[in-house]
Amino acid sequence: MHTALEIRGLTKRFGDKVAVDAVDLTVPRGSFYGLVGQNGAGKTTTLSMAVGLLRPDGGTATIFGADVWADPDRAKGLVGVLPDGLAMPERLTGREVLTYLGLLRGMPRRVVEERAAELLAVLELDTAGKALVIEYSTGMRKKIGLATALLHAPRLLVLDEPFEAVDPVSAATIKTILRGFVAGGGSIVLSSHVMALVEQLCDHVAVVDAGTVVAAGPLDQVRGDRSLEDTFVALVGGQDKEIKELSWLSN
Ligand SMILES: Nc1ncnc2c1ncn2[C@@H]1O[C@H](COP(=O)(O)OP(=O)(O)OP(=O)(O)O)[C@@H](O)[C@H]1O
Predict the structure, then answer these.
(1) Ligand 1 atom with least separation from CA of 42
(2) What is the model's pLDDT at position 239?
(3) Does the predicted TM-score (pTM) go above 0.80?
(4) CB atoms within 10 A of CB 230
(5) Whose CA is closest to atom 14 on ligand 1?
(6) Keyword annotations for this protein (predicted)?
């Protein structure tokens, strides 16, 4: 039985900077995996390489046994991706974006139309489905991005900051969809800065710091008897740093 996502030695340099340094990560089938790390830790770079959006300098990523770079067609059919800062065709409506992407994937038009209508309704984008993407708010863009990731019924979802800029009502809807996806046998990897959210949703977690994984495994194992936030701060060394006050801000 293959794992949902297997990352081995993934490495990426930008000039002299090693953004991702030989990262290993095993996402078990059926798990809800959270990736946490400070700004610039390497989460987006790791996830982009893992799904075939960014070519690594070294290492491999396999999705249910399909190598993302050697066997991209099979790998990409199995995964739905919500990338960071997703570029959308701005002059299409939400519904047209879904139709366009569904047809590009070779799905029958009838199936695409049915699923698009359902996704727009569930994500409360019915009205917005008729508006151009250029008119969408950041949160609405996240939601239509999530709809495009779900459209082909993938077995693994890789979501970069899916809750960023999403209002609490929409966030609750998205959480229900994601929990349902996992309950139905799907696997999810998401990145987030929000520890409470990761604790609420995920059963596995990896802490990324300066391009390396400093802790990974089942949530309870990683955090022990502490909160994830305390564990995170202790792991990435924030507690030792002296926090300078901005004296000019106080009267
Ligand atoms: N295209 C690029 N060119 C140069 N440097 C880059 C590029 N993309 C990322 N980096 C650098 O690589 C490092 C990791 O960035 P990455 O976006 O993966 O971090 P992140 O953990 O996703 O951060 P955030 O939480 O802020 O989204 C950072 O130092 C970033 O500045």
Answers:
(1) 18
(2) 52
(3) yes
(4) 14
(5) 42
(6) Antibiotic resistance, ATP-binding, Nucleotide-binding, Transport
Q: Atom 8 (ligand 1): residue with closest C-alpha?
A: 45
- What are 38-91's pLDDT values in tens digits? 999 999 999 999 999 999 999 999 999 999 999 999 999 999 999 987 788 889
Residue 238 is predicted with a pLDDT of: 63
Of 182, 184, 185, 172, the C-alpha closest to 202 is 182
CB 204, CB 34: distance < 8 Å: yes
Which of ligand 1's atoms lies nearest the C-alpha of 208? 21
SS (H, E, C) 215-240: EEEEHHHHHCCCCHHHHHHHHHCHHH
Domain ranges (residues) in the chain: 5-249
For a substitution probing ligand 1, which of 14, 53, 194 has the most ligand atoms within 8 Å of its CB?
Answer: 14
Q: Give the residue, by CA position, lying nearest to ligand 1 atom 12.
A: 19
